[in-house]
Amino acid sequence: MLQNYLNECMYFTATRLSRVITKVVEEEFAKCGLSPTSAFLILAVIEDEGISQKKLGEILHHQPSTVTRLIEKLVVKGYLYNRVEGRMSLIYTTDKGKALEPVIHECWNNLRLWTYDKLGDQEADEMTARLLAISERLEAK
């Protein structure tokens, strides 16, 4: 009976999937010394130098305090710097941060290949698209 509850529970199933994927993703990104979220943050800044912390939070779906902590860690490591203009904190990559871009892309590509190997290209792509659509529907107010 309990197993039925667990198998039919979106929370339990999503959490289980998250743990499996998180383990693989964190192992891959350990190679470059970044968390997956930090890697996405760096890519977002590279794509839009001078991006605001607020916009980074929206892109990453994180609270402002979480984004602030991530940025502070990346500033300490020498990957980012920020410039305050009025009430806004604008974020830029350093040369050291920009140099991580190919490594980050390599890690993401390795993860894509891992999911394709485990699920097949079509199922992996469809599952990702479906999870995104579900997240957006559940977040809608």
TrEMBL record:
Residues 27-127 form the HTH marR-type domain. The keyword DNA-binding applies. It comes from the Bacteria. InterPro entries: HTH_MarR-typ, MarR/SlyA-like, WH-like_DNA-bd_sf, WH_DNA-bd_sf. The keyword DNA-binding applies. SUPFAM superfamilies: Winged helix' DNA-binding domain. It holds the Pfam family MarR_2. PANTHER family: TRANSCRIPTIONAL REGULATOR, MARR FAMILY (PTHR33164), TRANSCRIPTIONAL REPRESSOR MPRA (PTHR33164:SF101). This is MarR family winged helix-turn-helix transcriptional regulator. It comes from Cohnella boryungensis.
